[in-house]
Write a structure and sequence with these properties.
heterodimer; A: 232 residues; alpha/beta; 9-stranded mixed beta sheet; 8 helices; 37% helix; B: 180 residues; 6-stranded parallel beta sheet; 6 helices; 6 strands; globular
Chain lengths: 232, 180
């Protein structure tokens, strides 16, 4: 395997977890060539922790935003734009990868040149009551994707698809990844790996927690706009 | 040309030919769609690769919705209605096609559970009927196998096939249904 990977980790007030996220990338069985940590103007000591890692690992680059964006898309876009490699693996600072996440995705990219987004099943770890459950996802199907977001944010993506389909929409505060995947689905193939390859952590401060109604309204709104713009 | 034989003779001869002389290795793959999905993309790609390596195995596709295929398959494609006349091994890829295959007693059916979530909410009667016809159930991963066994309360095959792989399915067919 010789595809080079950039990992982009987005952090906002995740001092407690960002270390785990960075370590999980550093321990990958297939090593990324660069790790970009974007901090969206955290008010806790996230930056101190990130700086500690920067001193030990030269691959880690930081983007410290001076103003908080109020959402995930903008810092994520900053990280993707800064990535120097053809493959970008996305990770939120409160989640972490399992060891083979990047290796498995790179294998898919090498076997299937038509695939630009690789996602997988995952575990959900609720740290509030220390329970774990497995989240299975549908294999990629445009008919299902239109009904629900089947692709997780912590996916591995060919960078060129962002140049073709556009980056995450900064104006969307929830489910911005879903809108992005819908745009990408018009021009590329997605691939689902039927194994859990990362852990999504629930900790009470998750952006989307308890905001299902707001999220559903957002999704409805951008779907209407999407249909107007591109047709169904 | 009009058939000059009496109908019963004609039927007997056709049945004899159909049952005894068709000795080809044949595998039918049953798909609900030929486009817009990972399953159709990977299956057509795998078939097109496989037919060049192994021309002695006859591969065919039986589809429910044809629409425009994601790529041109290098094998015969039939509407699923034609499955009644098929005899041999088949790989069904969702609950709908697995059920249809189970209705044909001349078929050795492998139900490859490509989308695990599709099994949610399926009537136990349908699952029971599929299994009762000798269908072999194959999962895509160990985790999926465990989930199917827990969810349906049945034991399924220990074979795990992460992605459509016809070489692998040929081995599984040999193991479960023997060599023709």
């Amino acid at each position: 395997m010789n595809l080079k990977v950039s990992s982009v980790i987005c952090c906002y007030n995740n001092a407690e977890f960002v270390g785990d996220a960075i370590k999980s990338v550093q321990k990958q069985s297939y090593q990324p060539d660069e790790i970009i940590v974007v901090d969206d103007c955290s008010t806790d000591n996230s930056r101190e922790i990130i700086d500690g890692f920067v001193q030990q690992d030269k691959r880690i680059k930081t983007i410290y935003r001076e103003v908080n964006s109020g959402g995930v898309p903008e810092p994520r876009n900053n990280g993707i734009a800064a990535a120097q490699n053809p493959i970008v693996s996305l990770l939120d600072a409160d989640d972490f990868y399992y060891k083979e996440k990047i290796e498995r995705a790179v294998k898919v990219f090498e076997e299937h040149s038509e695939v630009s987004v690789v996602y997988s099943d995952y575990d959900v770890w609720d740290t509030r009551n220390n329970s774990r459950r497995r989240e299975f996802k549908h294999p990629y199907d445009t008919r299902i994707l239109w009904q629900a977001s089947i692709v997780s944010t912590n996916s591995v993506v060919r960078k060129e698809i962002f140049n073709r389909a556009g980056y995450f929409n900064n104006d969307i505060k929830f489910a911005e990844d879903y809108e992005m995947w819908l745009r990408a689905a018009r021009m590329t193939m997605f691939y689902h790996i039927p194994e859990p390859l990362f852990c999504y952590r629930l900790h009470g401060k998750n952006v989307t927690l308890n905001k299902e109604k707001e999220m559903a309204e957002y999704i409805l709104k951008f779907k209407e706009e999407f249909v107007k713009k591109y047709g169904q | 040309m009009a058939n000059k034989f009496p109908k019963e003779v004609y039927d007997k001869v056709s049945t004899f030919i159909y049952e005894n002389l068709n000795t080809n290795n044949s595998i039918a793959i049953l798909l609900s769609y030929l486009n817009g999905s990972q399953l159709s993309y990977v299956t057509l790609k795998e078939i097109n690769k496989f037919v060049k390596i192994d021309p002695y195995t006859e591969i065919s596709i039986y589809y429910v919705n044809k629409e425009l295929p994601i790529s041109t398959p290098l094998c015969a494609t039939y509407n699923i209605g034609e499955l009644t006349f098929y005899r041999g091994e088949c790989i069904s890829t969702d609950i709908q096609t697995a059920y249809l295959a189970a209705q044909n007693p001349k078929i050795n059916n492998i139900f490859y559970v490509y989308d695990l979530l599709q099994l949610q909410g399926v009537s136990p009667d349908i699952i029971r009927e599929i299994i009762s016809k000798g269908t072999i159930i194959i999962a895509r991963s160990k985790e999926h196998k465990k989930a199917i066994e827990n969810g349906l309360g049945i034991k399924i095959s220990d074979e795990v096939v992460p992605e459509i792989n016809l070489e692998r399915f040929k081995e599984i067919i040999k193991r479960y249904f023997g060599v023709k």
